[in-house]
Amino acid sequence: MSDNLVKQPILWTHALTKQVSTGDEQLTILQDVNLQVNAGEAVAIIGASGSGKSTLLGLLAGLDLPTSGKVHLDNIDIFTLDEDSRATLRSKILGFVFQSFQLLPALTALENVMLPLELTAVSNAEATARRLLDRVGLAMRLYHYPKQLSGGEQQRVAIARAFATDPKLLLADEPTGNLDSATGIQIIELMFELNREHGTTLVLVTHDEALSRRCSRQIRLANGQLVQ
């Protein structure tokens, strides 16, 4: 891949602001956030609890609406789209890994990974899901339900699901937050390995400084503003 292609921004924001009303007061969660993420980068968004990290991630994905400002994702101004169009865009280019795994309890591991593929009408959904579950070390857990899996195993399913559609951009929100330290290290190693294999751009929200240093760049939020 040429340097010109690598340096193309896949994601950028302009004056992104989020405010919410609390009684008679207006609470500013994010204020005038300007950032750019280039294709192929691994970027950590770091900051203390309550600094606005998860709110920012939700806005970058178009899961929440800003009070003002813009988010451009893959050259598309996402807030000019309606909710259904944003959902379609997410299904095509985004993968998600959450702290709480967000697996559907009534579906097996295999079915959870197949779901985003079936929603985008991929013809070989089961074969792709099987391959990814094997890649994350869960070939023997295909037909287990989330409640039958450990926290680390559930997060491995979630990672397989996130990479199932071969997304251009992976958004991860405190992916090791509900795991013990040893399991968390294994999960992070796995996520970065898959990220390299797929050439995916990564935006990772974390309060873990050691984890953030695994990324090529760190962006710090404090009181809803970028400080570096």
What does this molecule look like?
- The two termini are 29 Å apart.
- This protein has helices at residues 3-6, 53-60, 83-93, 109-119, 125-135, 151-163, 181-198, 209-212, and strands at residues 9-22, 25-33, 36-38, 42-46, 68-73, 76-77, 94-98, 169-173, 201-206, 217-222, 225-226.
- It has 8 helices and 11 strands.
- The protein has 228 residues and is α/β, with parallel strands linked by helices.
- A 6-stranded mixed sheet has the order 7-8-9-4-10-11. Strands 1, 2, 3, 5 and 6 form a 5-stranded antiparallel sheet that branches.
Please tag this protein with its features.
globular, 228 residues, alpha/beta, 8 helices, 6-stranded mixed sheet, 5-stranded antiparallel sheet, disordered N terminus
Whole-number radius of gyration?
A: 18 Å
Number of helices: 8
What helical percentage do the residues reach?
A: 25-40%
Number of strands: 11
Structural class: alpha/beta
Please write the string of helix (H) and strand (E) elements. HEEEEHEEHEHHHEHEHEE
What is the percentage of strand-forming residues?
A: 25-35%
